[in-house]
C-alpha cells in the first residue's frame, strides 16, 4: 500500500472518529440539565430588566466559534484538571502574574496549547512518513502524545514565567516606591494619604497593586486588611515585610518613615547581592569556552611547531 493511500485511510478514520464523538456528545443523556440549571429559575428574585446586566459573552472566543467550542473546551479543561490537578497553585500563579483567578480559562488555554502540540506531532509524523516512504502508526501516536504533553507543559511554564517576571519588576520598583512613601509620611501625611499620593504620581506593577489596595480600602475593608491582600497575592518576602511594617506602624503608631527607608535599603542590598551572585555564575559560565575552546587551540598552536620540527629531525 502506498503512502498516499495510507494517509487517505488515516484521514478517513480521524473524520469518522470525530463524527462519532460529536454524535456521542449530542445524545440526550449527555445533555441533561445540571442541578444549577434546574435550581436557577427558582432562586432568581426577579427577571433582569436588561440583557446588559446579564452575564457577558463567553471569554473563550476562538476564531468566532466561542459559543460552539466553549462547552467542549470546558469539558476537556475539567479533564485536564482531574488528571493534572494543582488548581490552587495555578490560581496563585495567576494572581502573582496580575491576572484574574480564572482556573477554567487557564485549563481551556492549556487544551488549546495541547491541541497545537498534537498538530505539530501529526505534522512531524507526516514528515517522517514522507522521508522514509512508510507510515508508522506507533510513531504517529507517540509524536501526538508527546506534542500534547509538551503543549500543556509549555502553557504552565509560560504562566510561571509571567509571574516571575512581574515579581522581578515589582522588586525593581519597590525601593523607589518605599522612599516616595517615606517622603510623603515625613511631610505629614498619613498612611492612606501617602499611598494615594504615590499611586497618583507613579506607574508600574507595584503602583497598580497599591491602587487595588486603596480600592479595597474604599470599598469597606480597613487598610491593614487590604495591604495583607497585597502580600497574599504576591508572595514576595520583601513585600510581606513592607506590609507588616505599615500594618504595625498604623496599628501601634510607630514611626513609619524610618521603617520604609530601612526596607528600601534592605531591598537594594538584596538586589546588589543577587547581582553579585549572578555575576559569579556568569563568570563561571564564561570560563567554559575559554577552557574547552580557546585554551586547547592555544596549546595546539604552541606545541605543533615543536612536534613538526621533531618529526622532521627524525
UniProtKB/TrEMBL annotation:
Which regions span the lipid bilayer? 6-29, 111-131, 137-157, 284-304
Q: What is the superkingdom listed in this entry's lineage?
A: Bacteria
Q: Does the keyword Transport apply?
A: no
> How does this protein sit in the membrane?
Multi-pass membrane protein
Question: Which positions fall inside the Type II secretion system protein GspF domain?
Answer: 179-301
Cross-referenced InterPro entries: T2SS_GspF_dom
**Could you name the Gene Ontology cellular component terms for this entry?**
plasma membrane
Question: Pfam families, per this entry?
Answer: T2SSF
**Disulfide bond among the record's keywords?**
no
Q: What is its main location?
A: membrane
Q: Which UniProt keywords apply?
A: Cell membrane, Membrane, Transmembrane, Transmembrane helix
Where does this one sit in the cell?
Cell membrane
- Name of the protein: Type II secretion system F domain
Give the organism, scientific name. Intrasporangium calvum (strain ATCC 23552 / DSM 43043 / JCM 3097 / NBRC 12989 / NCIMB 10167 / NRRL B-3866 / 7 KIP)
Amino acid at each position: 500500500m502506498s503512502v498516499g493511500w495510507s494517509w487517505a485511510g488515516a484521514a478517513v478514520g480521524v473524520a469518522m472518529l470525530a463524527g462519532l464523538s460529536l454524535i456521542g456528545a449530542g445524545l440526550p443523556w449527555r445533555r441533561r440539565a445540571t442541578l444549577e440549571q434546574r435550581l436557577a429559575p427558582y432562586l432568581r428574585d426577579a427577571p433582569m430588566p436588561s440583557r446588559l446586566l446579564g452575564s457577558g459573552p463567553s471569554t473563550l472566543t476562538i476564531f468566532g466559534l466561542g459559543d460552539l467550542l466553549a462547552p467542549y473546551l470546558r469539558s476537556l479543561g475539567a479533564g485536564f484538571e482531574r488528571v493534572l490537578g494543582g488548581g490552587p497553585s495555578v490560581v496563585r500563579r495567576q494572581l502573582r502574574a496580575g491576572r484574574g483567578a480564572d482556573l477554567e480559562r487557564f485549563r481551556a488555554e492549556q487544551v488549546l496549547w495541547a491541541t497545537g502540540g498534537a498538530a505539530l506531532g501529526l505534522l512531524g509524523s507526516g514528515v517522517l512518513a514522507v522521508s522514509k516512504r512508510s507510515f508508522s502508526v506507533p510513531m504517529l501516536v507517540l509524536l501526538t502524545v508527546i506534542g500534547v504533553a509538551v503543549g500543556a507543559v509549555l502553557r504552565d511554564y509560560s504562566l510561571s514565567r509571567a509571574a516571575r517576571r512581574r515579581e522581578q519588576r515589582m522588586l525593581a520598583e519597590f525601593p523607589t516606591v518605599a522612599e516616595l512613601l517615606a517622603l510623603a509620611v515625613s511631610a505629614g501625611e498619613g498612611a492612606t494619604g501617602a499611598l494615594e499620593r504615590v499611586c497618583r504620581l507613579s506607574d508600574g506593577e507595584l503602583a497598580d497593586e497599591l491602587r487595588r489596595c486603596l480600592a479595597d480600602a474604599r470599598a469597606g475593608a480597613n487598610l491593614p486588611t487590604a495591604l495583607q491582600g497585597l502580600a497574599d497575592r504576591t508572595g514576595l518576602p520583601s513585600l510581606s515585610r513592607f506590609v507588616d511594617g505599615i500594618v504595625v506602624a498604623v496599628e501601634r503608631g510607630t514611626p513609619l518613615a524610618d521603617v520604609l527607608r530601612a526596607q528600601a535599603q534592605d531591598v537594594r542590598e538584596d538586589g546588589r547581592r543577587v547581582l553579585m551572585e549572578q555575576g559569579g555564575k556568569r563568570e563561571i559560565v564564561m570560563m567554559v569556552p575559554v577552557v574547552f575552546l580557546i585554551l586547547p587551540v592555544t596549546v595546539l598552536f604552541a606545541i605543533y611547531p615543536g612536534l613538526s620540527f621533531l618529526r622532521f629531525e627524525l
